[in-house]
Amino acid sequence: MTDDEAALVRRIARGDQAAFEELYRRTSPWLAVRLRRRCPDDQVVAEVMQETYLAVWRAAGGFAGAAVDGSAVGWLWTIAAHRLVDVFRRQQKHAALRPEIPADAPAAEEEALAGTVGAELGAALDGLAPELRDVLQAMVLDGLTVRETSVLLGVPEGTVKTRARRARLLLRKALS
User: Fold this and answer.
1) For this UniProt entry, which residues form the secretion signal (predicted)?
2) Phi and psi, residue 112, nearest 5°
3) Do residues 11 and 81 touch, judged by C-beta distance below 8 A?
């Protein structure tokens, strides 16, 4: 099939099951890797994946390039990230749980974007402390709010705001 993902979503909105299966085939491996980067629990990842694709089936008619990057995969990731935050919120009611992310493990999107990010920006991002990079990744790449980033990373909202400001200042300084 030569349809891009946005065309597949439009076909899904019309009830095209083959388009849904094709979208799933194309995006589920990438989505699973990205979710596992934020949550090591395979059961939670499977639950979030199921909820995400169910939401895609139900809400495909509302897709209008609404994602941060204007793409269907960005829209898909936004749905998944919100579902993951919902799971973390439910878990926090029972226990303080924060997914541990090894500081030296590259994120899926870092690997995917490695060839498209300029060397200067890449070096500046690499120079940031992992906790600053995590905040920028959640807020800028994933399009999460301060509150959602706070839940995802398991830190207070004020800390998220401080880290985001600090990361932006350090990037600005490194790029000037």
Assistant:
1) none
2) -70, -35
3) no
Q: At what angle do helices 5-13 and 17-38 cross, to 10 degrees?
A: 120
Give the domains, in start order, of the chain with CATH numbers: 1-100 (1.10.1740.10), 105-176 (1.10.10.10)
**CA distances in angstroms from 68 to 13, 64, 96, 133, listed in the order given:** 20, 11, 30, 18
Structure tokens at 35: 């979710």
**Mapped to the 3 state alphabet, what secondary structure does the chain carry?**
CCCCHHHHHHHHHCCCHHHHHHHHHHHHHHHHHHHHHHCCCHHHHHHHHHHHHHHHHHHHHHCCCCCCCCCHHHHHHHHHHHHHHHHHHHHHHHCCCCCCCCCCCCCHHHHHHCCCCCHHHHHHHHCCCHHHHHHHHHHHHCCCCHHHHHHHHCCCHHHHHHHHHHHHHHHHHHHC
Q: Splitting the chain (176 residues) into consecutive groups of 10 residues, what average pLDDT does each group show?
A: 74 92 92 89 93 91 57 85 86 58 51 50 78 84 80 86 90 79
